[in-house]
Amino acid sequence: MSGSLDHFKTVFNQLNASTLNLLEEIYTPEVVFRDPVHELNGLPALRDYYGRLYQGVVSCRFEFESEVNDGSQAMLVWIMRFQHRRFRRGEMLDLRGVSHLKFSADGKVLYHHDYFDMGAFIYERVHLLGSVIRMIKNRL
Q1: Per residue in 56-98, pLDDT tens?
Q2: pTM of the predicted model, to two decimals?
Q3: What gap in Å lies between CA 63 and CA 96, rounded to an integer?
Q4: Nearest to 114 by CA among 21, 70, 29, 50
Q5: N or C terminus: fewer CB in 10 A for the chain?
Q6: Cα end-to-end distance, the chain, whole Å
Q7: CATH classification code of 2-139
C-alpha cells in the first residue's frame, strides 16, 4: 500500500482548479471526506468541494513531513503552503495538519479525514476577529 500512499501524495500536489479530474485516480466513487467544517459522501460531492476551494488559489503545495502507514490506512502530517487572490493577497500562508486515510483493496482512498486548527487557518487572519482571538490566547 506504500505505492498507493506515494501516488496519493503526488497526485494531491498536482491538484488545482483545472485538474480536478485527477481525483478519480486517488479516490473511490463512494469516498467519505471530513474536515473541521464539512462531511461529504461520494466523489461528485468531493469534486464540487475542491472546485470551490481552488477558486482564487494562486498556488498550493503540500509538504508531507511524516507518515505512518500500516497497509490499509495511513496518517500524513503535512504543511499546506498556499497563496490566494482574495485572502491576504500576495502572502504565502502555511497551515499545519494531519490526514487520516483508509484505502480500498484497489489502493484508492475510501475515507479521508483532515484535522487542522480552523482558528489558525481563518479566524485569526480576519482583521478584527483575529486581533480578538490573539488577545484571548495571550491571556490563557
Answers
A1: 889 999 999 999 999 899 999 999 999 888 776 778 888 899 9
A2: 0.85
A3: 10
A4: 50
A5: C
A6: 43
A7: 3.10.450.50
